[in-house]
What does this fold into?
Amino acid sequence: MPEATQTRILLADDHALVRRGVRLILDNEPDLTVVAEAGDGAEAIEMAGAHRPDLAILDIAMPRMTGLQAARELARLQPEIRILMLTMYDNEQYFFEALKSGASGYVLKSVADRDLVEACRAAMRDEPFLYPGAVTALIRNYLDRVRQGDSIPDSAITPREEEILKLVAEGHTSKEIAGILVISAKTVERHRANLLQKLGLRDRLELTRYAIRAGLIEP
It folds into this structure.
């Protein structure tokens, strides 16, 4: 496979033995190559600056600067770099911190031989890689927030805007929507303008397409 198609990887772990094992897994793949190694988070940032890798694989627990701290710094210094966290710990807190730090995946060392290659390729496709326990943690966290009545931030629009979006997509005029929701036509127009701006859409047709994708109306 030509060099151009290879993903260039920085590997950071304070245990040389772990680095050697991980490097063996990665260098065995024709599309992956380790171009730099680091023994702690601070060195990882130096190496990333010198080698400009496509992907950084960072151990969470490292001296001088943890993998999480290094991930935050790398995401700031080199926003194009993909980041995977490598850890011994199946720990929900670390997992959520890793996501917040800009990592796109979280791989357990105990199953690195099974998961790491797949995680690298997913990261380069801009897809998240989550091991099964992490998926469970995410779902549990989501359900806990729903039960506590917290707002789920993933939704860009308010419940009222959603109601208006649905009615617009169903073909109702502003005046009709005002009658259905018992609000003024002016308020409907304001919500509609907010929707277009928030969602980056131009007109009713694009709003309708969005409503179909969001499952608000049948296609």
